[in-house]
Amino acid sequence: MDFAAAPWDYLGASEAIDIEHPLVQSTAAKLRTGDDIAYAHAAFDHVRDQVPHSMDTGDPRVPWRASDVLDQRTGLCYAKSHAYVALLRAGGIQAGLCYQESSGILHGLTAALVDDRWVLLDPRGNKPGIDVQFSPSENRLAYPDDPIHPTVYAEPPDTVLEGLKAMPKPTALPAPLQ
After folding, report:
1. Domain residue spans in the chain?
2. Residue 108 in contact with residue 85, Cβ under 8 Å?
């Protein structure tokens, strides 16, 4: 893996990775039990299971800031990775953003320093044909055969963030989940 920033930047905040936000902090505090592996696993499960991928549910909202993803409980793969990275950093675990590409489609991932090893984790969410799980020792990806870009970013590249910000905003919010 190549790193686009200094080591301490993988613990810091940015516009999209707003680790100081009260919702990020309170969620991290609620999930923070046990050691770093247990916490990274709990945060992974939270984002994977409690924040559905918006394409899977037909939710037109496109939050991109970690706190908004946690608040709205929806997001594309990039946004879910922002939320997972924010929770990891809020819990003191170095984490960054990675990407895969297949047929011109970019997919967002997370890289985390767990148990003294960087692993690629994909909090995208499960659906038929995709079963992503947490692992502290090996890469676990929704699309394991797609090429992985080698760079780990401390914050989303401008092209990714600007693309998310430019997505159309829905005129009406979906009905709440029952």
Report:
1. 16-96
2. no
Contacts of 35-40 with C-beta under 8 Å, sequence gap 24+, read 36/91, 36/92, 36/93, 36/114, 36/115, 37/114, 37/115, 37/136, 39/91, 39/93, 40/88, 40/91, 40/93, 40/112, 40/114, 40/134, 40/136
Sheet holding 105-114, edge to edge: 95-102, 105-114, 117-121
pLDDT tens digits for range 76-122: 999 999 999 999 999 999 999 999 998 888 999 999 999 999 999 99
The amino acid that residue 84 corresponds to is: Y
Residue whose C-alpha is closest to residue 95's, from 36, 48, 38: 36
**Contact in structure between 44 and 30 (CB atoms under 8 Å):** no
Q: 45, 37 in Cβ contact below 8 A? A: no
pLDDT digits (tens, 9 = 90+) for 27-81: 999 999 889 999 999 999 999 999 999 999 999 999 999 999 999 999 999 999 9
Q: What letter does residue 26 receive in the DSSP assignment?
A: H
